[in-house]
Write a structure and sequence with these properties.
alpha/beta, 4 helices, single chain, about 110 residues, three-stranded parallel beta sheet, about 15% strand
């Protein structure tokens, strides 16, 4: 989905939603913002079961503080769950794995 309006249109009328967030790449939109917005939209539309599958953002470990990306991800996920208690989050590093940004860059 490119924006919140497209996501809202896609889930309208759904009772169960399985949401896969993207793995970060250099020009990708902020997954942490999207997951919080998706939580609010699913609550607004009365979705009974909302499961988000989120890759761990290994690609952002080039920063001086290598744990900052995970802290930001955790903070965003906590905010999402606060806004929609029916939400379940599954974190995974199986989507692409460490240094996967290089595969995207080469493609």
């Amino acid at each position: 989905m490119q924006n919140a309006a497209a996501l809202e249109h896609a889930i309208e009328g759904s009772k169960e939603v399985l949401y896969f967030t993207h793995d970060y790449t250099a020009n990708a939109a902020d997954k942490n913002t999207f997951i919080q917005g998706a939580a609010k939209i699913t609550k607004k539309h009365g979705v009974e079961k909302f499961v988000a599958v989120c890759p761990i953002e290994h690609e952002l470990y080039y920063t001086e503080d290598q744990y900052l990306p995970l802290e930001k991800q955790t903070e965003a996920q906590e905010n999402a769950i606060k806004s929609n208690p029916k939400m379940t989050i599954l974190n995974s590093n199986l989507v692409l794995g460490r240094d996967s940004y290089l595969a995207h860059f080469m493609t």
